[in-house]
Amino acid sequence: MSLPERNLALELVRVTESAAMAAGRWMGRGDKNGADGAAVNAMRYMLNTIRMDGTVVIGEGEKDEAPMLFNGERLGTGDEPKVDIAVDPIDGTRLLSLGRQNSISVVALAERGSMYFPQHIFYMNKLATGPEAAGSIDIRLPIGENIRRVAKAKKKNVEDITVVLLDRPRHEKLIADIREAGARIRLITDGDIAGALMTCKEDAGVDLLAGIGGSPEAVITACALKCVGGAMYCTLWPRNEEEAEKCRDLGMDLEQILSMDDLVKSNNVFFAATGITNGDLLQGVRYEGDRIRTQSIVMRSASGTIRYIEAIHKLSKLETISGINY
User: Fold this and answer.
1) How far apart are CA 317 and CA 326, in angstroms?
2) For the chain, what is the radius of gyration of the CA atoms?
3) Which of 112, 152, 208, 323 has the fewest CB atoms inside 10 Å of its own CB, making it the most exposed?
C-alpha cells in the first residue's frame, strides 16, 4: 500500500477554509441544518479535488439526522494514497446558529484502516490534556487525582487548574467532584474538539478536558492530539441498556480504556481546522466585501509541525473557479 508521504494537511486546509467560509454566512441565523448543509457541500467538493483514495470513517450528522458526509463515502480523485477520513464540517453547529464563539470546521486523515469506528455508540467518556501533562492522566482514577497529577506535571497549584467540560445534566456529579478538588471549571455548551485542543494552547488557559461527549469527535480529537503530543483516554458510553446489549453482541468491551493509539493507530496523521466564529482556539471568518479572511491550524504527526495560517480569499475569483457558494 502506498503510504501518504506528502503533507496532505496543507491540502486539507483548503477543505476546512471552504467549509468555514460557506458556513460562516449562517452565523446567528438560527438554522443549524442550513449551516451544516453549506459546510458539508463545500467540504465534499474540496475533498474530491485532493489526490487520494479516501473513505469516510467518521462522518458527522448521523446521530441528529443533519446533512452529512456519510460513513463509507469515497472521496478524492481515487489515486493513492489510501486513507481514512474523519470530518466534522462544523464542530459547534448550535454555537454557529446562535452566533456564539468557538465553532470550527475540522478534517483529519490517516492511513487506511487506522481509525477506530465506534459503530452504534454515539458517546464516549473522555479525559484529555496537552503535552506538558500527557504522561500524568489516568481515566481510571477519580477526577480529583487527575487534577492533582496535572497540577504537579505543569508545576501549578490545584487552584490554578482549569477543567473544560460540556454543560450537560449528566455531568452534575463530575462538576461537584471538580469543585471539591478545588480546581476551576469552564463549561461549554458545544464543541469539545476545540475544548480538547485548548488544553494544548498555552494562552487558552485550559489544562484538562473531562466528561462525556460525542464518539466521532473523540476520534477526531485523538488525531489532533497525536499531532501535538497530548494525551487522551476514553471509554464507551452507551446511552441505555439496548445500546449496551448491542455492544456485548458485537464483542465491544465496555470496560476497555481506549488510548489515542486505539482511536487512531497510525503515526502519520494529518489534521486541519479553520475557525468559523471567533474563539479561544482560532479567529472566525471575516467577510470584507470582496475579501474573506480565515485563520486555520494545520498539523502533521510525523513531523510534529504546527502551522497557523492566515488567509485572504478573493471572493470574485473564487466564484469563477469553484462550485461553492460563498
Assistant:
1) 11
2) 19
3) 323
